[in-house]
Amino acid sequence: MKTDRQLQQDVMEELRWDAAVQSAHIGVEARDGVVTLSGEIDSYAEKFAAADAAKRVAGVKGVAMDLEVKLPGSNKRTDADIAKAAVTALEWNVSVPIGAVQVKVDDGFVTLTGEVDWDYQRDAAAASVRPLLGVRGLNNAVSLRPHAAIKDVKGKIEAALQRLAHQDSKEVTVAVNDGTVTLSGTAHSFLERDTIEAAAWNAPGVQQVVDHIIVAP
Fold first, then answer.
1. Which fold has domain 153-215?
2. From start to end of the chain, where are the E strands?
3. What per-residue confidence (pLDDT) applies to 167?
4. 149-181: per-residue pLDDT in tens?
5. Where in the chain is the domain with CATH 3.30.300.130?
6. Which one is the CATH code of 4-70: 3.30.50.10, 3.40.47.10, 1.10.530.10, 3.30.1340.30?
7. What is the pLDDT of residue 162?
8. What percent of the chain is predicted at pLDDT more than 90?
């Protein structure tokens, strides 16, 4: 098991390795497997990339984000300009149903609302807006449209987990109740936990995923 110092060093190295992150502006602390990133960065896209980089590191159990987006003058845009760009980006993304997602912008913070059929469509909407100039934060409040009852959702998710590489499905328990999936058990890494949750979201009829999986390297 890594010491806090080793984990801190590994996260710092991963941030330096990621070309989308200006690691010199980011402070890293590690305590009992939980990593805290702090500092000021130039864009929301970089904040998201930094979080992803930290999650990739073996031994990370959680990531706390104390990063603040401070836009340089060249990146600043009015809320109206951001909203217009966001609407266009959503319209040009083939994974986002036309007209399904609405945009609200307040001081650079974007809120997405609406209703789609699948979680990947909701994620695609966020991915469309995240890298836009002027965006300081993003709240993805898009909901999933209710589906008709699907038989054996639990079995479908368990079968999907068995197909995952480097994942022992016996370590994860799946419970389903009226479209809500609850996951419990252990994963070997933060990244593996995210992969398991994504597999659960792919099951038809899933409205919510409650992730109680513990990262145990």
1. GMP Synthetase; Chain A, domain 3 (3.30.300)
2. 26-31, 34-41, 62-69, 101-106, 109-116, 137-140, 143-144, 172-177, 180-187, 208-215
3. 63
4. 667 788 888 898 888 866 666 789 999 988 899
5. 153-215
6. 3.30.1340.30
7. 87
8. 71
Q: Residues 103, 135: contact at Cβ < 8 Å?
A: no
CATH 3.30.1340.30 in the chain is located at: 4-70, 75-144
Name the amino acid, one letter, at 30. A
pTM reported for the whole predicted model: 0.84
Topology at the third CATH level for domain 75-144:
Histidine-containing Protein; Chain: A; (3.30.1340)
Cα separation, 167 vs 165, whole angstroms: 5
Contact 105, 126 (CB under 8 A): no
Whether 147 shows a pLDDT value over 80: the answer reads no
Nearest one of 59, 65, 61, 56 to 5, comparing CA atoms: 59
pLDDT tens digits, residue range 36-60? 999 999 999 999 999 999 999 999 9
- CA-CA-CA-CA torsion sign (69, 71, 77, 81): negative
In terms of DSSP bridges, do strands 137-140 and 208-215 run parallel, antiparallel, or are they unpaired? Answer: unpaired
Query: Residue 102 and residue 106: Cα distance in Å, rounded?
Result: 14
